[in-house]
Amino acid sequence: MSTVLSNFDTWKKFLGDRVEAAKKMGISEEAISKLAYEIGEFLDNKVDPQNDEERILKELWDVGDESERKTMARLMVKLADRV
């Protein structure tokens, strides 16, 4: 996973592949966003940012309240969906 996190474009592709797989399995957009939020919480608590983009996301995550973090998670899913 560290290779995935070292490059932001690689991370977006990795996330996009997972979002696509989840949709093919019939998982709803809401469930995917909820999972993205939980992954964001995990990454915030357990993983050091590996690049500038991840540092910015972490700083935004840290200053956001729960509602704003959920919005960030949904936006990351949307971003990954475009890759």
Explain what this protein looks like in three dimensions.
The protein is an all-alpha fold and 83 residues long. The chain has a single domain, classed as Orthogonal Bundle (Cytochrome Bc1 Complex, Chain D, domain 2), CATH 1.10.760. It has 5 helices and no strands. It has helices spanning 2-6, 8-24, 29-46, 52-63, 66-82. Helix 2 (8-24) crosses helix 5 (66-82) and helix 3 (29-46) packs across helix 5 (66-82). The model has no long low-confidence stretch (mean pLDDT 90).
Secondary structure elements and pairings:
Blueprint: H1 2-6, H2 8-24, H3 29-46, H4 52-63, H5 66-82
Helix content class: over 70%
Largest sheet: none
| Rg measurement, Å | 12 Å
Name of the level-1 CATH class: Mainly Alpha
Silhouette? globular
Give the averaged pLDDT, no decimals.
90
Beta-strand percentage? under 5%
Treating each run of at least 4 consecutive H or I residues as one helix, how many helices? 5
Secondary structure: number of strands: 0
> What is the rounded distance between the termini?
19 Å
- Backbone structural class: mainly alpha
Number of discrete domains: 1
Output the helix-strand order: HHHHH
CATH topology: Cytochrome Bc1 Complex, Chain D, domain 2
Low-confidence stretches: none
Under the CATH scheme, the architecture is: Orthogonal Bundle
Distinctive features:
0% strand; single chain; 83 residues; Cytochrome Bc1 Complex, Chain D, domain 2; 5 helices; mainly alpha
